[in-house]
Structure formats: structure tokens, C-alpha cells
Amino acid sequence: MTSNHHQSVMFTESIDALNIKTGGIYIDATFGRGGHTQGILDKLDKSGSVIAFDQDIHAVEFAKENFNDDRLTVIHSAFTHMGELLSARNLSGKIDGILMDLGVSSPQLDNADRGFSFNTDGPLDMRMDQTSGISAAQWLAQADEMEIANVIYEFGEERKSRHIASAIKRMQQDKAITTTLQLANIIAGVVRSHKNKHPATRSFQAIRIFINQELKQLSETLEQSFDLLAPEGRLSIISFHSIEDRIVKQFIQKYSKQKQLPKGLPVMNIDIQKTIFKDLGKQFASKAEIKNNKRSRSAILRIAERTTLGVTPC
Ligand SMILES: C[S@@+](CC[C@H](N)C(=O)[O-])C[C@H]1O[C@@H](n2cnc3c(N)ncnc32)[C@H](O)[C@@H]1O
Question: Rounded mean pLDDT of 18-28?
Fold first, then answer.
């Protein structure tokens, strides 16, 4: 049976971080099952609106079946296209807040046929958008050993990446790797479990990030936020692992630092001194939430505010 349950992580904190204006326009970049979207809608009056994105068609179908609200528009697309899609709707510079709750949803993890789970067997897919791209199984079949090792090392910080890649290629000489448990068992033959973590945790994370181009999409979308956000518009971003959080952190820090003007620059260029974002810090899930929802253990929420005068970098 298909599960649709997803418990929104850091719900109150991430919604509060948006500092919602009742008539504002908000983006939920990662609709999932709409928990955060509903939280935003609940704070808006009739004139406010939410535009939500999800690249998973099942999330969009869920929205169509379960959300009946004129203030909500749900778009089936990777959030990396939000810049072009919103500017086509004449919304550049008019967005009051962007929420991103990154990674995969519980329905994606829990439904074995999506191929994300190393606990229950399913086709080795791992695509959030099953309407395009190649599955993890197809990629593992066509990639060479070095490429697999690099992905597992870079996106999973897995020290045994070379051994894992070599074991994968050895297995493929006998038969194709097509299911999640096949892959998980190969990895478990090479990596010892640590602190109750399944040995395949890091490798599955790495392959998933690679298959969905998650880090590239995140970086590209952050860069688009300059032009989309209105003055005082907020970014509220929840990430679930250090590689992702580093990208968000470095982005906010880079554009919240005061730039030093070279001496003697004419006064007309004074705007360049203003920063583009105000860094409003980071938060973690409360102990109570972590006890109640294990997924929130690794969540880091970062908040930033678009300044009123900062210049958009070229
Ligand atoms: C953690 S869940 C979000 C859950 C949601 N906040 C809720 O309360 O139900 C992440 C969702 O974002 C989607 N997603 C992840 N990366 C995406 C991207 N680059 N573009 C669009 N959707 C993405 C996934 O398909 C998934 O449905």
C-alpha cells in the first residue's frame, strides 16, 4: 500500500522564520505532502498566495487531490526552474519568502518501489522525478569504477568508496544490480555498521544526491533568490546533511559580508557597500521533536533576509 504520511520537520521554526506578511507571496520549493505549505496558507489572508514546487509527480497529484485552495498553485518542476517560471509570471522581486525543506520525503523513503530504501527491497531507482533522467541501476551499469567511487566519496563522505565501487563492478560481472537490497548487501559486505547506522547509509545518500543532482540544483536556486525576493523577503532552508548545509551556509555568509570599497570610488557607487542578505542564523530541532521524529535529528534550519538596498551581483 502506498504511504502518504510525512511529518514536517522544524515546522514552527521554519514557518516563523518566514516572518509571514498576511498578504504576501510565498514559495514552498519542496511541497512533499504539503505540511509546510499548509502552515504558510494558515497565516495568509485572502490576498496572500503560495506557489509550491515538487519534481515528484506523486507529490503534485497528492496536492491536486487534497488541497482545494485558490491561493495555492502547485507546479511539477525541479525548483531550479523557479527563476524562469516566476519571472514569466512577472513575480521577480515580489516574493516575500522562500521555504526549502530539502532531500526526500517519508513517502519516497517508505514506498519500496521508489528505490530509496536499503531496508525493504525495490527496484533500484532513486529518482525523485521518475518522468526523466536515469535510474540508479542504469547509472551503476554504465559508470566505471572510478566514477562510482568518486560519487560515493564526494557526496557520501564514505571512506570505503573505492572498495564499494570495486565490489559493485565485481558483482556486475556475474549479474546486473537492479534492486535496493542487492546493492545494500554488496555494501554491507565491505562496510561495517557504525553506531546503529546501516552500512549503506552514506552510499545510498551519495548515489541519491548524484542521480537527482541535488547539490547543483540547490546552488543554482540559491543564486536565483536574489532576483526573486522582495526587500525583507526571507529564506528559510532546512537541510539534512553537512554537505548540503555547507552550501547554504557559505552562500548566506558570502552575500551577508560587508564589501570593502576601494579608496576613492565615486559616491554614486555607494550601494555596493550594502549587503544582499542579513544572516539571521541557524537553528536545530528541539529535543522533543527529535524524540518524536528521528528524521529531525540531522536537520539544520538557516534563515536569511533580503536587504532593502543590496545590489544583485553580476
Ligand atoms: C523533505 S520533503 C518536503 C516535505 C514538505 N515540507 C512537507 O511538509 O510535506 C522534500 C520534497 O522536495 C522534493 N524535492 C527535492 N528536491 C527537489 C528539487 N530540486 N526540485 C523540486 N522538488 C524537490 C522532493 O520530491 C520531496 O517531495
Answer: 98
